[in-house]
Amino acid sequence: MKRDRLNFDLHGLRERLEAALVEPGQSLGSVLRQVANLGLDLLEACRRLKLPPPRLGEVEKWLMEISGIHHQSKANEETFAGLLSGLDVEEISESGIPFERILLIKRGSEPEPHEITKLARVLGKTPSEIKQLIKKKYVNGNGH
User: Fold this and answer.
1) How far is CA 75 from CA 71, 79, 137, 143, 144, in A?
2) pLDDT of residue 143
3) Domain presence at residue 56
4) CA 139: distance to chain centroid?
5) Which of 27, 75, 86, 115 has the largest count of CB atoms under 10 Å?
6) Looking at the structure, do residues 94 and 119 belong to the same domain, yes or no?
7) Nearest-CA neighbor of 120 among 92, 141, 82, 88?
8) CB neighbours (10 Å) of residue 11?
């Protein structure tokens, strides 16, 4: 079997790779292969499941969004983002809105009129209440 070789400067990755060592004495090359395979597995799974992949530096935020883990304060409870953060993606998907669209809405995209009706049902609000919360988000300039 022909072996492909790659030489590159780690530019600060050495410490992170060494922290990822599973077995004492494991080579950096071995760790790098495992990390690359894990990254490729993640990207391929996202493609198969039609999920948007995480952005570099935002993996934790992405995981919280798709898992439903959230940190909600009292101040967020009466905002559109706060209501959405109170539910995980699976609960919202019961509305019939496609999974990918739910993630985009949770990230700040404005829902379409037909989605507002579906979201209202899941959130226990009227469509007009949801519209007011969305309007408040854009007037205040934030959704968080």
Assistant:
1) 11, 8, 13, 11, 9
2) 44
3) no
4) 25
5) 115
6) yes
7) 92
8) 6
> Does the CA dihedral 65-87-105-47 come out positive or negative?
positive
Taking a C-beta distance cutoff of 8 angstroms, is the pair 28, 69 a contact? no
Q: Which two tokens stand for residue 113?
A: 């009129």
Within its chain, how far is the Cα of 124 from the centroid? 24
Same domain, 77 and 30: no
Residue-wise pLDDT tens digits, 27-45 = 888 888 888 899 999 999 9
Residue 135 phi/psi, 5-degree rounding, is: -60, -40
Could you give the residue ranges of the DSSP H alpha helices within 51-126?
A: 59-67, 80-85, 89-93, 99-106, 113-123
